[in-house]
Target: EAL domain-containing protein
Amino acid sequence: TADAALYSAKDKGRNGYQFYNHKMGVLVEERAEIEHALHQALAHHELELHYQPKVDLGSGKIYGMEALLRWRRPEIGLVPPDRFIPLAEDTGLIIPIGEWVLRTACAQLGAWHANGFPHLTMAVNVSARQFLQINMPDLVREVLADSGVPAECLELELTESLLMQNRDLVVQSLEQLKEIGVTLSLDDFGTGYSSLSYLKQFPIDVVKIDQSFIRDVTDNVDGASLTKSIIAMAKSLHMTTVAEGVETEGQLGFLNTNLCDAIQGYYFSRPLPSGEMDTLLHAGARLPPDNCHAESRQR
Ligand code: C2E
Ligand code: MG
Ligand code: MG
Ligand code: MG
Model:
């Protein structure tokens, strides 16, 4: 029913997903049914990717984007990833879904490369479960070959939780991925327990500063100094910084002053379906020059 909303029932634990009909106040769907529906989602072409631009603060220009997964469920609407990725991880469905995401994002990037934007990069989120269950370097090699996209243009967004397990195996895979030539970034930095010095042992190129830090930069002194030191420390370790969840001009100003390399967030653009992203690219959307700084590394 149209008014059924997917929500995660806290008392059922992290993966206790249920459909709740607000009007009637009753449970209309159990986890098993969602699992069944998710099994069919790929075959029924219900998954789609939206794309959120990443903007270089040196030039003010879009240099790449991040692919963000959505599930368009018949009769329900667009389901955000936080509502079904944990279930996909638990059931192992994250393996075929993750492969579909990588292939679709690279195919889309190849199309943009061929249609006037040859330097764009594409970032794909990889969950720890997915990374640990398959041979990621083999999959990446295959998908790059099939799509014709240069390795330099593909970025994998990894989580801190991945770096906390099977250290030797993870380091080995990451080094193979670096040999292939893809960019490795750490998503949601600051929300886990790792420090930047811990990260030194991994070949990570980019640190994405979690939006919870960005939210605070203009609201409190501690938030500002934390973000400032993350940017400074990342730079000293030769890592690029990307601020996530930038929503206001004030936050942007702070990030410029403190020489953050790039931003992503609603301030510039929400994640968009490919057609709308195409329009944005062709319109030459960018930050005005006085909203940029000149010292960011060249892209
Ligand atoms: P993430 O990778 O950290 O992606 C950023 C999330 O923040 C996205 O939510 C994006 O829509 C949202 N966001 C961007 N700018 C702003 C802003 O200015 N303000 C606010 N409030 N939010 C902003 P989304 O698309 O719902 O994705 C949530 C998470 O789901 C992602 O977090 C990522 O961890 C995961 N995810 C998404 N797609 C995939 C995928 O294909 N595979 C895997 N494994 N995980 C995915
Ligand atoms: Mg991400
Ligand atoms: Mg993130
Ligand atoms: Mg996140």
Notes: Residues 187-188, 208, 244 surround magnesium ion (ligand 3) (CB under 6 Å). Residues 1-16, 23-27 have pLDDT under 50 and may be disordered. The longest helix spans residues 94-114. Residues 157 and 257 are 26 Å apart (CA to CA).
